[in-house]
């Protein structure tokens, strides 16, 4: 493997994920981050799609990024004219190559497609564009026809070629054989563009790169049409760590990029997604935490910092003494073995009831067992929320903070958001408390279900999770927030006392 390049298509194929539509500002933010990561080519969109899409592509092309900015085009002159109007560096010029696509979709024959591919390649080259000529549905195409279209493309001026496994039908062995054949037959290396319909996108991409592909088409978090595309983070980390190949990608920015794309597209990352999933560096099992304390490589293939992440130890029914003792010590308490056994027993009891064990739960258990008093500095007096289809959700909250009454009102994206904004404003005097995560679960079915709200709050680098459980989602949110805020400020005071 040498000189591997990455074409990131988060902004084109990734945006084709059903339900995703990015604004110009969203696309610019993602493009800047991809450039910071060090991807070589950013496929910024399909210029033919709409005026808004063209404005976004134009804005990205005008950013002066190091990456080559590319637009998807069909083998049609209007698509190329629109790409030219966006001032892109290159086009991903896509010719359907399987007989299925040629006959059923285009209602043409191989000769016509060959002619269209040649003419549009020449047209784009004559207008100063770099052309990546791509075979759509190449994995179901006749390989000889595919090679002849690539050859004609090279003669017409294409500088890059691409093989699309459009509906994810490749397997690694077949990929390897095809790419060895292409490498032996063509003067320039072919790129690989895979879809994940059978979960083989990454495996096929890596197989192609090892067999001579020069460029991988990828997306952040593997988003894309249907089951998605090959994910950038997986290919990069596999090449770096399992094949010892230096990709040049800034891996410490991968996690932040993943979260940025998830937030802007509204597509959550599965907790168990490799490398960037919420649980990829979280540990609950006592045997694992015990091992990690001796050497993190016992239960982690790489250090989380390599991806710009942190390790998380989670409490629950699988916890052991090592993890409980670590968490309690981090909370600033000194404990003896007898206390530790009792705390662990209570943690497991909570777990057996099917409960998440939050930091606040653990702290409260520890305080009970160690017989420590916890005084809530922030107490709820009352709150009011107004919401409906014709009003802006508005909330007012009255709290007692260190015995002083504080009243705040505010608006939000919904009643819960409005209430949380008020609480944050009301406690601003005790410090800058950030809401990092908010999850809600209905514990029982029905509209009168018990609702569990889990929040993750941070203050000055310290993070805490807490829970509120009520039948009313707003009350559960208020409870989780106030519980967490009190625990955070109490943990800070314990630190001060220790110092
Ligand atoms: C595998 C992939 O990811 S391909 C990329 C998919 N991306 C997109 O579809 C981008 C967004 N698409 C759009 O905005 C619209 O579909 C447009 C503007 C491209 C076309 O819109 P319309 O003119 O209304 O056509 P429509 O969407 O109904 O059909 C697609 C047309 O493109 C043709 N076509 C499809 N792929 C190609 C191709 N690679 N080269 C040439 N023509 C193509 C189809 O045969 C069809 O032609 P027809 O209208 O003459 O039958
Ligand atoms: C072009 C493209 O995105 C595909 O064939 O999957």
UniProtKB/TrEMBL annotation:
Its EC number is 2.3.3.21. One of its GO terms (molecular function) is 2-isopropylmalate synthase activity. It catalyses: pyruvate + acetyl-CoA + H2O = (3R)-citramalate + CoA + H(+). Residues 4-255 form the Pyruvate carboxyltransferase domain. It is an enzyme of class 2 (transferase). It comes from the Archaea. Keywords: Amino-acid biosynthesis, Branched-chain amino acid biosynthesis, Isoleucine biosynthesis, Transferase. GO terms for biological process: isoleucine biosynthetic process; L-leucine biosynthetic process. Gene3D superfamilies: 1.10.238.260, 3.30.160.270, Aldolase class I (3.20.20.70). InterPro entries: 2-isopropylmalate_synth_dimer, AIPM/Hcit_synth_CS, Aldolase_TIM, Citramalate_synthase_CimA, LEU1_arch, LeuA/HCS_post-cat, LeuA_allosteric_dom_sf, PYR_CT. Pathway: Amino-acid biosynthesis; L-isoleucine biosynthesis; 2-oxobutanoate from pyruvate: step 1/3. Catalyzes the condensation of pyruvate and acetyl-coenzyme A to form (R)-citramalate. Homodimer. Belongs to the alpha-IPM synthase/homocitrate synthase family. This is Putative (R)-citramalate synthase CimA. It comes from Methanomethylovorans hollandica (strain DSM 15978 / NBRC 107637 / DMS1). The lineage of its organism: Archaea, Methanobacteriati, Methanobacteriota, Stenosarchaea group, Methanomicrobia.
């Amino acid at each position: 493997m040498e000189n591997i390049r990455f074409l990131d298509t988060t902004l084109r194929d990734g945006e084709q994920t059903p339900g995703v539509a990015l604004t110009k500002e969203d696309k610019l933010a993602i493009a800047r981050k991809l450039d910071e990561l060090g991807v070589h080519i950013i496929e910024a969109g399909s210029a033919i799609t709409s005026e808004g899409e063209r404005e976004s592509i134009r804005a990205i092309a005008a950013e002066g990024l190091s990456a080559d900015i590319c637009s998807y085009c069909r083998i049609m002159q209007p698509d190329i004219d629109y790409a030219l109007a966006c001032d892109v560096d290159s086009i991903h010029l896509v010719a359907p190559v399987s007989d299925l696509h040629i006959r059923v979709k285009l209602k043409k024959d191989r000769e016509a497609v060959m002619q269209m591919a040649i003419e549009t390649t020449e047209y784009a080259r004559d207008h100063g564009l770099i052309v990546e000529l791509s075979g759509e549905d190449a994995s179901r195409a006749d390989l000889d026809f595919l090679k002849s279209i690539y050859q004609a493309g090279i003669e017409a001026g294409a500088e890059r070629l691409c093989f699309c496994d459009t509906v994810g039908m490749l397997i690694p062995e077949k990929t390897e054989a095809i790419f060895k054949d292409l490498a032996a037959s063509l003067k320039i290396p072919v790129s690989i563009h895979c879809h994940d319909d059978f979960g083989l996108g990454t495996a096929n991409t890596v197989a192609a790169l090892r067999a001579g592909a020069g460029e991988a088409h990828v997306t952040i978090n593997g988003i894309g049409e249907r089951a998605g595309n090959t994910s950038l983070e997986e290919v990069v980390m596999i090449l770096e760590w399992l094949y010892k190949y230096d990709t040049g990608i800034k891996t410490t920015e991968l996690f932040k990029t993943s979260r940025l794309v998830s937030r802007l597209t509204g597509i959550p990352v599965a907790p168990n997604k490799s490398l960037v999933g919420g649980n990829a560096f979280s540990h609950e099992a006592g045997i694992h935490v015990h091992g990690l304390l001796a050497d993190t490589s016992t239960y982690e293939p790489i250090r989380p910092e390599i991806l710009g992440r942190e390790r998380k130890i989670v409490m629950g029914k699988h916890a052991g003494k090592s993890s409980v003792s670590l968490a309690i010590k981090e909370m600033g308490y000194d404990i003896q073995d007898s206390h530790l056994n009792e705390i662990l027993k209570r943690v497991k009891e909570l777990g057996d009831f099917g409960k998440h064990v939050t930091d606040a739960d653990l702290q409260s258990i520890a305080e009970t067992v160690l017989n420590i008093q916890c005084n809530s500095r922030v107490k709820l007096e009352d709150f009011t929320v107004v919401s409906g289809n014709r009003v802006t959700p508005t909330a007012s909250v009255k709290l007692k903070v260190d015995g002083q009454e504080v009243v705040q009102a505010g608006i939000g994206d919904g009643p819960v958001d409005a209430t949380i904004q008020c609480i944050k404003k009301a406690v601003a005097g005790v410090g800058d408390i950030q809401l990092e995560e908010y999850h809600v679960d209905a514990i029982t079915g029905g509209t009168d279900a018990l609702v569990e709200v889990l929040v993750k709050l941070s203050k000055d680098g310290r993070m805490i999770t807490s829970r509120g459980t009520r039948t009313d989602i707003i009350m559960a949110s208020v409870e989780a927030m106030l519980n967490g805020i009190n625990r955070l400020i109490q943990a800070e005071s314990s630190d001060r006392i220790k110092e």
